[in-house]
């Protein structure tokens, strides 16, 4: 049986207090129930580097910050605490790792040395900014500021100076963004507006808005908020999770002309994250409020999702990452 190893970051609660591990059967789509793997409370968002270095948010009694664990070397976590309130996002960029803090309006830049994180710089935007992600883009770093309705672009080669501001319509709430492999297109999920904005990325950190794609019919808009956005490996389809409406939207992304082609139930309540398994045959949804992890099949030609194949308990799920395939 071929299987994939996955990891789930969670909010700290009586039922969840660390990073959890699960397995996905790549033939049937069956999931195992996640089991506690690492003592990293309030792990929330996860990122996994190609060499098996797992990054997560962490919160201890004396502070919050970043935890790094080498999955290939004994699973020993190394932490640095540099915040009072835990962040909401983490991302790798070579030997750098970034954390975004929604509450403080900051992005912390850390260096990875011998598997341990060291704070290099803190980008301070402001407590009302609502920083929700850090997205590397060559010499630039993009930071969606949900409460400011903008993405701020910082120059990593110029002492992290502000390079430009990518403005969104008032009240749209840009939350998460993803580039294609060539970094020629940027897709941004607007949380409050429940829409996807597509931009063409030019040289020197310049962006041109190409299209706005709504995700929901009017009847489902009240109380709904987008969360995660994912791009398929062949770059033909986008997947967006929508809380409130409890839907997953599938968009065609070919040629830069995004359009919604499917809207399906997430299989629970409050889909905080979705993730495409390596190979693109399955999509997983972590439904935070209903406490379950659901696996859907993905049609490789149409990109459409089929009926759920597996549904297992998973408390307070925030983010999903996958490791390399294993044989068992």
How would you sum up this structure, described in words?
With 328 residues, the protein is an all-beta fold. It contains no helices and 28 strands. The chain has a four-stranded antiparallel beta sheet with strand order 3-2-1-28, with no helix packed on it. Strands 4-5-6-7 form a four-stranded antiparallel beta sheet, with no helix packed on it. Strands 8-9-10-11 form a four-stranded antiparallel beta sheet, with no helix packed on it. Strand 25 (282-287) and strand 26 form a beta hairpin. It starts with a strand and ends with a strand. The model has no long low-confidence stretch (mean pLDDT 95).
Q: How would you describe this structure in keywords?
A:
single chain, 4-stranded antiparallel sheet, 56% strand, mainly beta, globular, 328 residues
Radius of gyration: 18 Å
Helical segment count:
0
- Tell me the span between the first and last alpha carbons: 6 Å
Alpha-beta classification: mainly beta
List the helices and strands and how they pair.
Layout: E1 2-10, E2 19-25, E3 35-38, E4 46-48, E5 53-60, E6 63-70, E7 77-83, E8 89-93, E9 96-101, E10 106-113, E11 116-124, E12 135-137, E13 140-145, E14 150-155, E15 161-167, E16 174-179, E17 185-190, E18 195-201, E19 207-214, E20 225-231, E21 237-243, E22 247-252, E23 259-265, E24 271-276, E25 282-287, E26 292-297, E27 310-313, E28 317-327
Antiparallel strand pairs: 1-2, 1-28, 2-3, 4-5, 5-6, 6-7, 8-9, 9-10, 10-11, 12-13, 13-14, 14-15, 16-17, 17-18, 18-19, 20-21, 21-22, 22-23, 24-25, 25-26, 26-27
């Amino acid at each position: 049986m071929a299987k994939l190893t996955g990891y789930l970051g969670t909010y700290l609660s009586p039922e969840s207090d660390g990073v959890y591990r699960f397995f996905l059967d790549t033939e049937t789509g069956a999931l195992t129930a996640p089991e506690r793997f690492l003592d990293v409370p309030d792990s929330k968002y996860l990122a996994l580097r190609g060499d098996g270095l797992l990054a997560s948010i962490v919160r201890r009694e004396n502070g919050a910050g970043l935890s790094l664990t080498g999955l290939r070397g004994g699973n020993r976590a190394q932490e640095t605490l540099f915040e009072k309130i835990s962040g909401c996002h983490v991302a790798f960029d070579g030997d750098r790792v970034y954390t975004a803090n929604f509450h403080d309006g900051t992005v912390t830049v850390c260096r990875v040395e011998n598997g341990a994180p060291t704070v290099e710089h803190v980008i301070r935007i402001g407590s009302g900014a609502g920083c929700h992600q850090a997205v590397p883009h060559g010499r630039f770093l993009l930071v969606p500021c949900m409460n400011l309705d903008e993405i701020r672009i910082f120059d990593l080669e110029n002492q992290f100076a502000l390079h430009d501001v990518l403005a969104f319509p008032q009240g749209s709430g840009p939350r998460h963004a993803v580039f294609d492999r060539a970094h020629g297109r940027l897709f941004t999920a607007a949380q409050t507006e429940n829409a996807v904005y597509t931009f063409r990325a030019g040289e020197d950190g310049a962006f041109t808005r190409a299209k706005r794609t709504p995700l929901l019919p009017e009847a489902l808009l009240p109380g709904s908020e987008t969360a995660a956005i994912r791009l398929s490996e062949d770059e033909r389809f986008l997947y967006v999770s929508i809380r409130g409406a409890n839907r997953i939207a599938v968009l065609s992304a070919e040629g830069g002309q995004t359009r919604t082609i499917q809207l399906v139930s997430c299989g629970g309540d409050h889909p905080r994250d979705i993730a495409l398994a390596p190979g693109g045959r399955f999509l997983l949804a972590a439904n935070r409020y209903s406490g379950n992890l659901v696996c859907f099949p993905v049609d490789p030609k149409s990109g459409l999702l089929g009926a759920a194949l597996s549904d297992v308990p998973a408390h307070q799920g925030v983010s999903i990452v996958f490791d390399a395939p294993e044989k068992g």
